[in-house]
Amino acid sequence: MESPLEEKDEALLPDFPKGPLQTYRARASFSWKELLLFLEGEDIIRLKRTIFSTLENDPLFARCCRGDIAVDKYRELSFLRCKRFLEYRFVRVKDFLQAPVKVSVLIECMGMYDWSVGIKYILNMLVFTLTVFSLGSERHFEYIQKIFKMEIFGCFALTELSHGSNSKAIRTTAHYDPSSEEFIINSPDFEASKFWVGNMGKTATHAVVFAQLYMPGGQCHGLHAFVVQIRDPKTLLSMPGVMVGDIGRKLGQNGLDNGFAMFHHVRVPRQALLNRTGDVTPDGSYVTPFKDNRQRFGASLDSLSAGRVSIMSMSTVNLKLAVCIAIRFSATRRQFGPTNMEEIPVLEYQMQQWRLLPYLAAVFALSHFSKCLFINLLEFYQGMQSQGRSAQQAALGREIHALASAGKPLTSWTAQRGVQECREACGGHGYLAVNRLGDLRDDNDPNCTYEGDNNVLLQQTSNFLLSLLAEKAQGGARAESPLKITGFLDAYPDILSQKFSAPSAGNAWAPEEVLDHSYTLAAYRWLVCYLLRESDRKLNQEKQAGSSDFDARNNSQVYHCHSLALAFMELTVAQRFHDFTRHASVPPSLRDVLGRLSALYSVWSLSQHVATLYQGGYFSGEQAGKMVKATILDLCSQLKDDAVALVDVLAPSDFFLDSPIGKADGQLYQNLWAAVLQGNQVLERPSWWPKFSCEKLEFRSLKPKLAQLCPISPYLREVDPTWPK
Amino acid sequence: MESPLEEKDEALLPDFPKGPLQTYRARASFSWKELLLFLEGEDIIRLKRTIFSTLENDPLFARCCRGDIAVDKYRELSFLRCKRFLEYRFVRVKDFLQAPVKVSVLIECMGMYDWSVGIKYILNMLVFTLTVFSLGSERHFEYIQKIFKMEIFGCFALTELSHGSNSKAIRTTAHYDPSSEEFIINSPDFEASKFWVGNMGKTATHAVVFAQLYMPGGQCHGLHAFVVQIRDPKTLLSMPGVMVGDIGRKLGQNGLDNGFAMFHHVRVPRQALLNRTGDVTPDGSYVTPFKDNRQRFGASLDSLSAGRVSIMSMSTVNLKLAVCIAIRFSATRRQFGPTNMEEIPVLEYQMQQWRLLPYLAAVFALSHFSKCLFINLLEFYQGMQSQGRSAQQAALGREIHALASAGKPLTSWTAQRGVQECREACGGHGYLAVNRLGDLRDDNDPNCTYEGDNNVLLQQTSNFLLSLLAEKAQGGARAESPLKITGFLDAYPDILSQKFSAPSAGNAWAPEEVLDHSYTLAAYRWLVCYLLRESDRKLNQEKQAGSSDFDARNNSQVYHCHSLALAFMELTVAQRFHDFTRHASVPPSLRDVLGRLSALYSVWSLSQHVATLYQGGYFSGEQAGKMVKATILDLCSQLKDDAVALVDVLAPSDFFLDSPIGKADGQLYQNLWAAVLQGNQVLERPSWWPKFSCEKLEFRSLKPKLAQLCPISPYLREVDPTWPK
């Protein structure tokens, strides 16, 4: 039978260079090229390869010593790279509408190169423009044109020094002055300075500023957005009344300039108000299609879902790169062995497999999920056009909101822990900056915080589930679930009465049961129902004990709503990946490896909840817990020989991966040694050598005291009787 | 009753400045001054305060913008600070023998200032000199004298590019040439270059180099240590035949210069061999008091225990500083509240308490443990003098080795996770470099790796426990446990037959039961016995199934030996802190707060193992699991009002803590704002502004395409009908 690959352009997917990884590559149970083509398709692969080779050949993108660059220079490079990305026009303007997946691939590639550039681009090209689009009207579209021409540079200024999560409590004000038809933007004090705003530190000329809108009569209409010019595009000097600056070095993403701004009675024209959700007439009347501030506020901030879905994809990219580095390292690093003569790759150790392979599975499961959710989001926006705000659309919007609100925490945390595990799994070499695991961890870290702190955000999802339960309790109506995510809750009481029944026999599932892993998903469904019931009970208990709604909610997060939201999200990710891997379109030659990845992600995620499965009585006896563990180890061992080929599917070009210990040729030590020797002034003595050589210390009568210098000297005396007492 | 405090010098423990933290300070159930005096004693407090104020007043130690300093400059500062520390002679030479705890306080203070300086000092002043002391003889003591005069600078060169954990497989060679009475040190290839060696990058003039010793006849006697001069102290240029350089930037500790060295047939005199465990006569005969290489190798490396105990203390310091920052932040950061008008400190949220307070408890428990183990180590060394290698001493040595081998992993991991949690708990501001949580995390990270990778090291402890079990099985003799740590294993079968019996009633323990928390410790003892039995069974199963010893051991780590070592260590830490807090010497006014900290550390640590407690049948029913959770939350809530005062006990001076959001005055925003404005060129436009302002992009006919730019444009059209199709 002719392989479908032979028909493809061989140049598209060239073989990897021969080398130490060959052994594992030869052992793989599947063709990495076939899996890559199946997952991404030829067009996307071609686009990625184009981006990879274009940037690799452009000196502006040349890699320099990681971290050895001054912040100002790094900011400059990030700005220039951001601009060059736009100039290359890898994606056509029409693709934004017709092939938005290409746009997300573009962003993924920018992030694989460096998130400082990627986020700078996103904040300017997407967040600023989308906010102007969605909150403004035609009179604001000139800003978009100017952004695309790079005449101006944008930022999104919501958070303040003293307010982040509680965005409703923002204190910047905008007073309308009908005499001049202007708004006066003002920061009452430094605690109300806009703070943390990406691109604001050095680059942005225009900001979407959120402020409390006050009418001449003193009435406050709540938070509104205004386009405010903060710097002169001709000089990059700040505008009068605007004190704008850089908040300084962060743990990562230092190519991005986060900034602050204080407004001292800055006057902007009436037209600066982004007026979709509310407008002010020239004479100072407030008009809005919304009934109350709360509803208006919700509508004005619902573009945040797109940000959260993006962060899921960003986090997954970070984990993907870290796993590529750690697995290629583990397949080539040899340490210890059955005899003194022979050392084996550390990937052969069960411990190393257990540390890394679940994260490899997580990359596949989470990538699939974030791609799906992105498509759901696009469908939602398209549905808004054809159906408007129908009940079906409203339900879809709610469901996407719930998934994005727990998807961001799950993905960013999995990535954060996974990258750290990869760093540790690469030992000392993982701690060397040139190998990139530090940058991946540091650049990923804020994904846990911005666009909604993870712990706060999870409440959105648990609230959604609790409201479904309440609806059922009230009417018994079928839970509306356009994405079929929450349908299983219809069987809530039945599921709660289920118990785990051990499969066939022994300590582990039979191979076909493992790949099916319906046991895991059933256990997850029980877990979600149990946590839902417990959360509901806990909330009611609190209220019955006299707690306010505020206190009741706060006291029901730990071990209840918080766990519920995460477990629900893990189930959703696991279920979607399970469905995908068992779809008829999967080539038979790929089913086993995809099935194993899916099973491993499920059972590994579930293993965090075994205590709860026992506590609630779903598990009982010693076998249940042992089976979960045995299954994880079994799957790790089955995937071990496929790991390098799976990483070949995930990894970008060596230039993009940018890690000597993770290169595709597997020449671990040659690559690392070369990278170290190419460092800055590696072999030179330090500039301050005279300070070492000229200034010595005076110690009189040191020698007789030597014996007392060290707490173990008595021990030494045993060895050396001449040692002075 | 007159407070004992009034007799003390008020200047020693001045009150904190008034401010927003006052509310919590007033609510504390105990006096922070009393607790500090009880825990540290007046002498240590005085020493610390002296160090704090001396450094704060020395411009050499002035803080500069975190991370904004070039590596070369940072290395210079670290070297000069290291030297200045020595010049200040905070600790007298005789204190090294008479009051070694003072030396550990000195190192703790250096670390609180900056671990780059601290580790540079430790490697030179302690590791190099102790190695020369313990492996060498009188002819080598001149090196120590020179180290103290700063005439030379030392490093410890064991690991190579391709060998870390498996140190026996080191490939550097030392061939003896009797004709010149010299050793020829050689690196066979770059993979055998010494690598990761602290101080070697730029500073060290002398290295203790570990190499395989070869006799003229070709016989190899295994690993030996040699003092090799690598640089000329007059010029800091490398010595002939030595290619020595810097391995480059790391994720943290960049004030420390880690380096590499390749030796090209470098000749050193016969006397360069550190000859305690084996020597070579001038004519080329090898003499050793040890029977075989294996025994000799063990003896030559057993000084590593001291390093591991030090790392426990280093990790605890990192966690301590992070917890101080995060708790002071949480007590002053307000976000959301019961009404729109009033916001409450985030420390009031159960979720925030649950995230942070267990780590606060861990700081107390782990600090106590690492201090104890340090004292045990000193006693061990003293015992070597009086008793030599008696059976009792041998048992003590083994026990300390087992505790240090699991203590380092437990402490470094707890710190790594805790610092990350603190970073996240401080939200965006935690991600700002100036607040130090990033440096704490990055500087702590290698504690998980060096001096034995955590996962590899845990095997030492599980092997120790398994060997105790085997000894019992063979002779039934009482497990020898000089530190009374493993005595409970005598009751191994009885303990295994125990089951958890719910205390009095309800969802949680009664207050007095919580403080007693003998339930937790009993559960832990069962857990250790169960994991010991399971590990032993697993190893035997593997062997019966035909696995080699090597494979059997490797396949018994995950969920078995690995968990066993950690659980045993947690129990040991919890038990020791429990005993300490219930000791008669504890003032009655401190018993409750210390008891709560002890109980929280125990039950929080135990909560990681609830699945195993159920799996093994120690727990059954829903109540057991729920009680563990309820107890944690209950203790968090009880400790919440004491948290700020507890942090006042732990925190160094503001200058040492070096975190605007963690300052003692609690003026969160004022301090942060001041720090940001004091940054480098905060308000200036970037140097590259003309590149922004002059070069614009050409986009023809952009406006008609605008509508297609964004995937959500259909959604926008609903809002704005003028939006072009």
Automatic annotation (TrEMBL), chains A, B:
It catalyses: hexadecanedioyl-CoA + O2 = (2E)-hexadecenedioyl-CoA + H2O2; (2S)-pristanoyl-CoA + O2 = (2E)-pristenoyl-CoA + H2O2; a 2,3-saturated acyl-CoA + O2 = a (2E)-enoyl-CoA + H2O2; hexadecanoyl-CoA + O2 = (2E)-hexadecenoyl-CoA + H2O2. Residues 519-692 form the Acyl-CoA oxidase C-terminal domain. Its main location: other. One of its GO terms (molecular function) is FAD binding. GO terms for biological process: fatty acid beta-oxidation using acyl-CoA oxidase; lipid homeostasis. The keyword Transferase does not apply. InterPro entries: ACO, ACOX_C_alpha1, Acyl-CoA_Oxase/DH_mid-dom, Acyl-CoA_Oxase/DH_mid-dom_sf, Acyl-CoA_oxidase, Acyl-CoA_oxidase_C, AcylCo_DH-like_C, AcylCoA_DH/oxidase_NM_dom_sf. Pathway: Lipid metabolism; peroxisomal fatty acid beta-oxidation. It is found in: Peroxisome. FAD binds at residues 159, 198. Residues 304-466 form the Acyl-CoA oxidase C-alpha1 domain. Its cofactor is FAD. The active site is at 451 (proton acceptor). It holds the Pfam family Acyl-CoA_dh_M. Residues 155-262 form the Acyl-CoA oxidase/dehydrogenase middle domain. Belongs to the acyl-CoA oxidase family. Oxidizes the CoA-esters of 2-methyl-branched fatty acids. This is Acyl-coenzyme A oxidase.
